Amino acid sequence: MLFGKKKDKKPSNIAMMDSKVNEDYVEEKVTKIKDEDVEIVMDNEEAISKKLSNAGPLRKYTELGKIMFSMLKDVKKGSYTNVPWFTIATIVVALLYVFNPFDLVPDFIPGIGYIDDLAVLSMGMGWIETDLHKYLDWRLSGGEEA
Q1: What are phi and psi of 15, to 5 degrees?
Q2: List of residues 6+ apart from 78 with CB closer than 8 A
Q3: 22: burial class by Cβ within 10 Å (0-12, 13-18, 19+)?
Q4: Are 144 and 92 in contact (CB under 8 A)?
Q5: CA gap 89, 86 in Å, rounded
Q6: For residue 126, which phi and psi values (nearest 5 degrees)?
Q7: Where does the record place the DUF1232 domain (predicted)?
Q8: In angstroms, rounded to a whole number, what is the distance separating the alpha carbons of residues 146 and 134?
């Protein structure tokens, strides 16, 4: 799980911003996502959405967050099934990472606190962009499975 575990306080945390290290970190977390993690995200939708809309650097991801939550809800209801688990897990990792204030670069550090959140959201978006577009097309077509 992404929070609840204390991270090592090594001086190399800032060095984790290297894109390859970050990608490996996120990919490792994605492979460990469970159904319970999806529930944690859904239970904290309001807090995550509030953080996305109130944190200046993350504000541009507010609409993306709404789409991700909408997709998770439709998958959970069983109305949208055309999505690989990797996509759901990526959404969950990205949103849990944003929700966690004590990540690689803690959010309370002025100026750089949201750099890692932006990196994780951007990386995740790159991995699942096609699936998000398919989901939006599905929604626009009336929300019926093909």
Answers
A1: -65, -20
A2: none
A3: middle
A4: no
A5: 5
A6: -60, -35
A7: 88-122
A8: 11
CA atoms within 13 A on the CB side of 20: 0
On whether the CB atoms of residues 129 and 123 are closer than 8 A, the answer is no
Amino acid at 47: A
Count the neighbouring beta carbons within 10 Å of the beta carbon of residue 19.
10
3 burial (CB, 10 Å; 0-12 / 13-18 / 19+) is middle
State phi, psi for 37 to the nearest 5 degrees: -70, -35
Q: Which helix (H) or strand (E) holds 139?
A: helix 115-140
Q: How far is CA 67 from CA 4, 14, 16, 105, 139, in A?
A: 27, 30, 28, 26, 10
Q: Looking at 13-17, 96-100, 126-130, which range is the least confident one?
A: 13-17
The pTM score is 0.74
